[in-house]
Amino acid sequence: MARVLLLHSMYGLRPAVHQAADRLRAAGHEVHVPDLYDGRVVDTPEEGIAIKDEIGRDELLKRAVAAAAPLSGERLVYAGFSLGAAIAQNLALGDERSLGLLLMHGTSDMADGVSADDLPVQLHVADPDTYEPADWLNSWYLGMRRARADVEVFRYPGVGHLFTDPDLADYDAEAAGRAWAIAEDFLAGL
Description:
Elements (H helix, E strand, L loop, with lengths): L2 E5 L7 H12 L3 E3 L12 H11 L1 H12 L8 E5 L1 H12 L5 E5 L15 E8 L6 H13 L3 E8 L15 H16 L2
Parallel strand pairs: 1-2, 1-3, 3-4, 4-5, 5-6
Helix pairs in contact: 3-4
């Protein structure tokens, strides 16, 4: 069993995030799902970007750190969707006790010299993905390897960015099923 902090996308704490948390709980994991948007949920990328910009990157990171702090007595798996994945990556790389990092649909840049000694990292991403272009993903992967992370990337051809959210147009049931099966195996192995 892993203790997981699962962070939502720029759309807010949508039903799909709760469904994912329930799926992981059914597999035996303890899952915490903070609301970084204070109850706001949106339906379009434009609305999500507007809220993200209004709150600001630094404030979102502070809110995520505050959500993780009460859980820090035990090793955490940081996980997230798109924007939440980017924030989860920052938290995991800043926590030397991090147990793992599960990224669904997103990544973040990394500071030079960051170390992730043998941190298990798994990324699930659309191929192609307008938010995660191939050149960026290649650079990100090399950066993770330089940081000495144990990283796996799973690409899903022909699907939309948030292909695991059944309430969005990006949803692809087959790809989502594959991604969740692989992610559950990843968490079970930590």
